[in-house]
User: What shape does this take?
Amino acid sequence: MAKQSGKTIKVTLVRSLIGTMRTHRATVRGLGLRRINHAVEVIDTPATRGMITKVAYLLKCEG
Assistant: This one.
């Protein structure tokens, strides 16, 4: 994996994807999250900020 440059945000999936909209499930997968309590670090860009905002009710973020 390529080395990440810049600031990162740690994102954790804390709620189930069952019953959510298909686009929200796709957004969570796009962030790299697979299951409940799975955490990833993503680069802090406007695009990832928008993805996090879209599904904020499913996530926990640490800056």
